[in-house]
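Note to self: user wants both folds in one dump. Writing first protein now.
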Amino acid sequence: MGCSSCASNTNGSPRGCRSNGTCGTDSCNKLTVFDWLGNMEMPTGKTPFPMVEVRFKNSRKGFYTLPEGLCVAVGEPVITGEENGYDLGLVTLTGELVSFQMKKKKILHDSNEVSKILRKASQKEIDKWHILRDKEPQIQKRARELAIGLGLEMKLSDVEFQGDGKKATFYYTADSRVDFRQLIKDMAKVFSIRIEMRQIGLRQEASRLGGIGSCGRELCCSTWLIDYRSVSTSAVRYQQLSLNSLKLSGQCGKLKCCLNYELDAYRKALKTFPKSEVKLQTEKGLAVLQKIDIFKDQLWYAYKGEWMNWYNLTLDSVHEIIAKNKNKEKVPSLEEYIVEENFPVIEKPDAMFKNLVGQDRLNRFDSPKKTKNKRIKKRKPNRSQNNA
């Protein structure tokens, strides 16, 4: 749903907005919310909801109250009140959907997380905001040099300027606690601004930087995912995946968030299957579970000591065997319950489709090789025989 003017330049940035996804239409930004109530009129006697949702750089959003008499539209830049200054952001949502979003995130109207919108942004403030955005890569590079000079084990992943240019927030990741008091003094001296250090996790860092996943699509955390739920190894075991850290970990180094998408379906389906600890008692021997296919309702068992021979059974057959084992009754063998796999029969081609001219050869388009004409030498008669 990108805007019509967002064609890519040679450097990869959008040609229309020229600010990497911060155009006024707000249709090519990440974490964009579609207002499906935008075209509907308000009922008579009811005033619109006096709060809006404002998005800042990357995925940072906030809820703000509108002053009386001020009407804003989606994608319009506004000035929000911050501590010791102001900030500039884009309106992403208005109307009744804002109240639903606040209930979803459990934010009250009178909480400290809700601030006020001062006014609409002027063109001078917008130009200043764009200049600050262009300075962020240089500031980030210089801050990394200062951190390396102090020998701090931290990674500065992103920098965000406040709309007035008086404050900059540095986002960093670190494995342990970092004493950056001297770093703040050095950066405040070099940049002449107020510095705020904010530690984020590896998933938040990946959402800010973005990238392409192993599936070939953009990272979920940088496009639409808003809550970062923890992913445990139990999700891998429920889905019967191999514990390969290279395949199961994302760009952040943690387990992929998509492992949780189908976890509930797997857990619900596995409730009808017997546990792996349950063994089947037969007269031929004890059978142990080896594999489960929840989509086909099939299980594979192997006799204890004969681990190479697997027997494919249906879920109903396994429940039948377990019920007999509870009644202290053993079945003769697993061979009586094996599922016969019916492979598709490949019919022979008719006579009219037979290869008569060699059209199915792989080398039919190759140029024929030229054979060298070998001259047959005539044997000369032996002189000794002629003289005789």
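First done. Writing the second protein, which came from a different request thread.
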Amino acid sequence: MPGGDRLHRGGALLSGFGAAPTPALLLDAERLTRNVARVGDRVRALGARLRPHIKTHKCVEVARLQVAGQFGGITVSTLAEATAFAAHGFTDITYAVPVEPGKFAAALALAQRGVRLHLLTDDPAVPGPLAEAARAAGVRVDVFVKVDCGYHRCGVDPEGPALRELVQRIGERTQLRFAGLLTHAGHSYHARGADAVRAVATQEREVMRAATAWLAASGVTVPVVSVGSTPTITHVDHLDGVHEVRAGNYAFFDATQVRIGSCTLDDCVLTVLASVVHRDRTRGRVILDAGAIALSKDPGARELDPDAGFGRVLDLDGRDLGLRLRSLSQEHGEVPVPDAALLDRLPVGARLRIAVNHSCLTAAQHEAYLVHEGSRIVDRWAIHRGW
């Protein structure tokens, strides 16, 4: 594994879950390595290149595992992520949020440092001011056009005149390079079952192929077609016409991906280590010291599983106890325990692990991962947060 900051107490490396403070964010090194290899091999076999989205983990060590054997590019969601990763040697970065003028200076500062920074927009008013800012900074930047493939969050209509107009506005400015078309099938997270996810994956690919063909008929070459989501890349049947995949959650997976069918619980990398701070025999429950700040309040795939709660409760060996976190306050998590015999085995001080609903949001609540091999904590990896 890549080396990170060692976690010590009194000069000794922590060796087990019992020695770690709670709540703590645990990262299973073996599962991480397996997930990274699985999706990396799949994207390669489908004839595309992988530009992993590091917003899931915001961790240099994880990103280095993801780009090993790939071309080296990454995707970020914040310029703070881009800055931190550039400082650690990543020089081919896509900032996958439509850029707005308030972020021009920070983005172009990265380009001035030699980072090949790919920006994106879906607004025809952006290329002009961006080009002027790039000229003043003495740099040239790549700009993707964001296309709506059915998610309806951002992006231009792939069949409307706005697409051609935006490509033209980028192309006619010497400080900008038209990088290609980029989309995100975020609606795959609401699909019910493998067939439904596969249908979204097909839609994502075919919308982009059609937009590329439409531009080609107008004499415009699309250098890169970029797609990306973990559900679609784990279900898509082929990627003909697609050059690049920007999936990110696959490194960790989570309970939501289990419900979607992208993985199994045994693929989930992150758990939050928590302690029982209160046992209530009258109400049949325990209270943990992991609340919304440790877990986030992501409700998971409730349209698929109304009883998802805020995470699955595991024992220290990772076995699912069949319990769910029912409610969260800032620092407390409530777990109903209807089985009296199981409740007897959960006194104050007992430790449990929570398989999280949304690994990206949970990771963003913490400063570092405690990396473990089996039940042995072997390292501490920093998380680079901020905007």
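Dump finished. Worth passing along: The two ends are 28 Å apart (CA to CA).
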